[in-house]
Amino acid sequence: MRMRNKPWAKGELEACPYYLADPFPIREHLHSLFPKSQPVHLELGCGKGVFLASLAVEHPQINYLGIDIKSLVLASAIRNINAAYEKADRPVDNVLLTPYDISRITNILSPADTVERIYINFCNPWDHPKQFKKRLTHPRQLAQYATFFPKGEIWFKTDDTMLFEHSLRYFEEAGYTLKAVERDLYHSPWLAQNHPTEHELRFVEQGLPIYFCIATKGQQG
Ligand SMILES: C[S@@+](CC[C@H](N)C(=O)[O-])C[C@H]1O[C@@H](n2cnc3c(N)ncnc32)[C@H](O)[C@@H]1O
Questions:
Q1: Does residue 17 sit in the same domain as residue 54?
Q2: Which CATH number fits the domain that encloses residue 88?
Q3: Does 111 fall in a domain?
Q4: pLDDT in tens, 104-120
Q5: What sign results for the dihedral spanned by CA atoms 201, 202, 205, 209?
Q6: Is 107 contained in some domain?
Q7: Can you give the pTM of this predicted structure?
Q8: Which of 146, 167, 181, 213 could cross-link 137 (Cys pair, CB 3.0–4.6 Å)?
Q9: Given ligand 1 and candidates 2, 42, 50, 69, which is best to mutate, with the most ligand atoms within 8 Å of its CB?
């Protein structure tokens, strides 16, 4: 994602109580970092936080961790999240943001840091075979997520046909069950509970289909 210089970002990141500039203290302590003890859902590559802002404010009974490799985009996420909570007249008490490279995620999340749901939205498709292993849905990544994600759901959205079809296979090969598979989210029953992301809004405006699936693992309930 191309970023313009943001002279305000450093100050706003430093002042934000739910932004962890250093992700390493999260390891083994994720649950105690939230004011309320409740399930944690994780968004990988949360970008400017458009999705997280609208989802988290609507679900105060869930704690949300948003990770993106770029701290500058997280400065925009903070603005979006603050705006959503101000509108709802609530303090931001169920969100944490941290900058980190997801390909090394087990450095910051351990088996003690259990997550019950993972959201992956419009991640880079890496469409050259040599790059497949960089995909956030690649089996190599799914094996890493298993460290802190013993059971639950992965909610995945993309505009990329090949990434989607390959990812369905990745999930099944890794032992997930596909609970939902939609090749046109905006003409499916799942639209009612959809929270659009920043990238998604652009694709929808262009009339492009959004691919969506839910892959479940382990016993639910
Ligand atoms: C195409 S954008 C999508 C952003 C947002 N999810 C959306 O749908 O609007 C992909 C995001 O993933 C982040 N990203 C890509 N690779 C990453 C990695 N290895 N670790 C963490 N974040 C990553 C990028 O910085 C970018 O913000």
A1: yes
A2: 3.40.50.150
A3: no
A4: 999 999 999 999 999 99
A5: negative
A6: no
A7: 0.97
A8: 167
A9: 69
